[in-house]
Write a structure and sequence with these properties.
heterodimer; A: Aldehyde Oxidoreductase, domain 4; Aldehyde Oxidoreductase, domain 4; 27 strands; 31% helix; globular; B: alpha+beta; Ubiquitin-like (UB roll); DNA polymerase, domain 1; five-stranded mixed sheet
Chain lengths: 718, 153
């Protein structure tokens, strides 16, 4: 049954297995066609490459194999990391082959995708990896030629001595034997040849021709497929009648573990059918089942009467508010959100007598390994983790719940298991962006100076739902930041730009309300506060005032702030996950309705490693920020998400995006990340522009479901 | 189970599956053509888009019993060498972020351009709008469709 008669099953499995093991993809797709080039097989390059360090190997064919240790989920690290190694090695990019490294905590540090942290963590390591190998090649060449290293230079994979040129491939054998130098000189940033140039995604060809690359693309002969029905939040399994599910052709078994009911079969579709045939009874663990109305009530109760955890207190807030000439008070609220990456959760696990093999899409392979080791009672070194490409992550794949499930099942069934979540499983399966509500208060004196600032926030399983050192902290004499948390059975997790994905919108919208009340221009108020923080800093300051000022001023300049008659502009700026981003959104009134035309973004992430990737990250972050601010809602009834698939869980589409113009501040500072930074400021810029255009202040997300926005059609802005 | 004869990417296949098995799962689980992606399973996102007699179709809701003599093209068979103008344009514009939806985007764009080689901006948006990209690569998708259109002139 279920076999393709005309395909060679074995060949396919071999291809798939290679993909799971990190398919080797040449990025020089077009240059490969050049008839002048000697065609060297990828296999030959890999087999002949000599290891110089954890990051690179050099083949006598003159090709360099660069290993990218971090999981790739669309942040383009698999291209930008190797660029940095190649830069310091001084090779021609067309001779570079990139390979996804698997989990190896001996070789690599921090094989994690999260927190926009990879670039600042690895920048110097990667440069040193390339520079060290280059130094060894220089020393090998010096020895062979009988000259000193200082007489030599390198260029595009060659060591050059006068008119004599030795290729890296030619030197590889000798260079690999040179003792690893303890100190190396890094390039002057002005001599960069690869960094700062637009290098295309190394997986483009594989992605655009449908080669197996992602976790769900992994298949292995003899494995079983599994899908799981998980309990609603706050409930546990009481009983299951699986007779009808088991009767579905292609289903092998139905098993239970930890309140989960798992269906096992030979392929995916019978599992999807059988899942609908399960008759499961659940019972509440304790207390009531949670719904959105309940959460709304909890938010208000806790904001009114709950004891907040004081995160930051400067000056005397009560005195400032007592003496205030004007007080502004506003509340902002957001719903839970699913990460909903296009590739649903999945993982392959094979628990054997002597260890565990894990293959799949994870942002934290080390966490996956430790989880598997604990379940099976092995030491972590008995567990291998191969990272496939991730079809998106957005923080969801920082968790290992789906890995644990696959491991539990493989252990129980004594078979290799591929676990697949359906889209419904993904949207109802938890680990959401926490729902949060903020209450802001600002005090102005009679000269409209901001003399007091209060933020009190409550989140559901959000930990600290504030970021107490965010601007305008440091610029206000009297300030109080408090956080409260409600513990719920509904699971939450970091979601792209954790907390700040909504907090930045709320802070930057509220600052706009303050500017409005003070009769000040939005940009002028921000510059005034930055000026105060510079001259009379209050408490600790955790952002670089000058860098923030620069993005504010540049965004105002690039967007023609305040100089466009008939255009309503909204401003937002954020020190965002180590980078600085300012945005200006533009709206116009058309037929009495605001229409969003364009958003400008000015980003300071230090050195821009790959301009095409950087532009993508900023754009993507903004579209993500915009989509979830405007359209996406997730509500709960009795512990289950009401939105179970993309028909009701509303993601942004092509006709809803405005024009985006990106700019970068090129200041030569060591680079910071870009996966998250552009997202947080977008909602604020848009809401502030909508307010300017329509006079309607939208404080809750998603905007389009709020009363203020009823009958407002932002239209097709294209 | 029943036996179905299929024509996919110019090759004949036979599979033994239930009549209601979506083409998507036959491609992926039975034939090893994994370029066509599963994401929503209810024809709401377009990741599973293939061509049926040249028309863009959501393979996640197309039962195998309805395929009959129809000619199926998947991303693997869109061009022999991965050089269809749409694939070239996607590479030149460097469209992808995570890349998971892009096979479906490319198949949708290729079908659109076959019908309408010179689409206006509005026609591109109308033609591509039902394909979701969670990473938000929409600007570059638009740009790449325009470039592919220019290449086919």
């Amino acid at each position: 049954m279920n076999k393709g008669l005309k395909t060679n099953r074995r060949d396919f499995l071999k291809i798939a297995a290679t993909a799971g093991g990190g398919l080797l993809i040449g990025f020089n797709w077009s240059s490969c066609d050049s008839p002048k080039m000697k065609v060297v097989s990828e296999e030959e390059i890999m087999n002949s490459a000599l290891g110089f360090n954890s990051y690179l190997s050099i083949s006598p064919t003159d090709h360099v194999v660069i290993f990218s240790p971090n999981p790739e989920l669309g942040q383009n690290i698999k291209t930008s990391f190797p660029m940095i190694v190649a830069e310091e090695l001084d090779v021609d990019w067309s001779n570079v082959r990139v390979k996804q490294a698997f989990l190896d905590t001996e070789k690599y540090d921090r094989q994690v995708t999260g927190g926009s942290g990879a670039m600042p963590h690895s920048w110097e390591r990667l440069r040193k990896a390339g520079a060290t190998a280059r130094q060894m090649l220089l020393q090998a060449a010096a020895k062979r030629l009988g000259v000193s290293v200082s007489d030599l230079r390198t260029e595009k994979g060659q060591v050059i001595h006068g008119s004599e040129k030795l290729s890296y491939g030619d030197l590889a054998n000798e260079a690999a034997l040179v003792p690893v130098p303890e100190e190396v000189t890094l390039k002057n940033t002005k001599d960069f040849k690869i960094i700062g140039t637009p290098i295309k995604n190394v997986d483009n060809r594989a992605m655009f021709t449908g080669q197996p690359l992602f976790g769900l693309d992994f298949y292995r002969e003899g494995m079983v497929h599994a899908m799981i029905q998980r309990p609603p939040f706050g409930m546990k399994l009481k009983s299951v009648d699986s007779a009808a599910a088991k009767a579905v052709k292609g289903v092998k078994d139905v098993v239970t573990f930890k309140d989960n009911v798992a269906i096992i079969g030979e392929s995916t579709w019978p599992l999807m059918k059988a899942k609908k045939q399960l008759k499961i009874q659940y019972e509440p663990i304790d207390g009531q089942l949670e719904s959105s109305e309940f959460h709304n009530r909890i938010f208000d109760e806790m904001l009114d009467t709950g004891k907040g955890d004081v995160k930051r207190e400067d000056g005397n807030v009560n005195a400032a508010f007592r003496s205030a000439a004007k007080v502004i008070k506003s509340e902002y609220q957001c719903p839970f959100l699913s990460h909903s990456p296009m590739e649903p959760m999945n993982f392959f696990a094979h628990v054997k007598s002597d260890g565990v093999e894990l293959i799949g899409p994870t942002q934290t392979p080390d966490r996956a390994r430790n989880a598997a080791a604990e379940i099976c009672g092995f030491s972590p070194d008995k567990v291998t983790v191969e990272m496939t490409r991730l079809g998106g992550g957005f923080g969801r794949r920082l968790r290992a719940d789906f890995v644990e499930e696959a491991v539990e099942l493989s252990k129980m069934l004594k078979a290799p298991v591929k676990l697949t979540w359906s889209r419904e499983d993904d949207l109802t399966g938890g680990a959401y962006r926490p729902a949060v509500k903020y209450r802001f208060e600002a005090a102005l004196d009679s000269d409209n100076n901001l003399i007091g600032y209060k933020l009190r926030g409550v989140g559901i399983n959000a930990g600290n739902c504030t970021r107490e050192n965010n601007f305008p902290s440091g610029s206000v004499d009297n300030l109080l930041i408090e956080s409260l948390e409600y513990k719920s059975p509904i699971t939450t997790n970091a979601w792209r730009a954790p907390i700040t994905n909504f907090l930045a919108f709320a802070e930057q919208s509220f600052l706009d309300e303050v500017a409005e009340a003070a009769g000040k221009d939005a940009v002028a108020l921000r510059l005034e506060l930055l000026d105060r923080a510079k001259k009379n800093p209050v408490g600790e300051i955790h952002y670089d005032i000058d860098r923030m000022r620069t993005v504010v001023e540049t965004a105002a300049e690039k967007s023609g702030w305040g100089k466009k008659p008939g255009v309503s502009q909204g401003f937002s700026v954020y020190f965002s996950h180590r980078s600085y981003v300012a945005q200006v959104a533009e709206a116009r009134m058309v037929d009495g309705k605001p229409k969003l035309d364009k958003i400008y973004a000015v980003t300071d992430c230090g050195i821009v490693v790959n301009p095409t990737g950087a532009d993508q990250q900023v754009r993507g972050g903004m579209v993500d920020g915009m989509g979830h601010a405007m359209f996406t809602n997730m509500t709960f009834t009795d512990g289950i998400a009401d939105q179970k698939n993309f028909d009701t869980y509303r993601l942004i589409k092509m006709n809803e995006i405005p024009e985006i113009e990106t700019h970068f501040i090129d200041n030569g500072i060591d680079p910071t990340g870009l996966g998250e930074p552009a997202l947080p400021p977008t909602g604020g810029a848009i809401a502030n522009a909508i307010f300017k255009a329509s006079g309607k202040r939208v404080r809750n997300q998603p905007f389009m479901e709020q009363e203020e926005m009823k009958n407002v059609n932002l239209g097709d802005p294209a | 189970m029943a036996n179905y004869k299929l024509q996919i990417n110019g090759t004949n296949y036979e599979v033994d599956v239930d009549y209601d098995t979506p083409l998507l799962w036959v491609l992926r689980d039975n034939l090893g053509l994994v370029g066509t992606k599963y994401s929503c399973g209810v024809a709401q996102c377009g990741a599973c888009t293939v061509h049926v007699n040249g028309e863009a179709v959501r393979s996640c809701v197309l039962p195998i019993s309805a395929v009959k003599e129809d000619k199926i093209t998947t991303i693997e068979g869109l061009s022999e060498n991965g050089d269809h103008p749409v694939q070239q344009a996607w590479e030149e514009v460097d469209v992808a972020q995570c890349g998971y939806c892009q096979a479906g985007q490319i198949m949708t764009a290729a079908a659109l351009l076959k019908k309408n080689p010179n689409p206006s901006d509005e026609e591109i948006i109308n033609g591509m709008n039902a394909n979701i990209c969670r990473c938000g690569t929409y600007h570059r998708i638009k740009e790449a469709v325009k470039l592919a259109s220019a290449k086919t002139k």
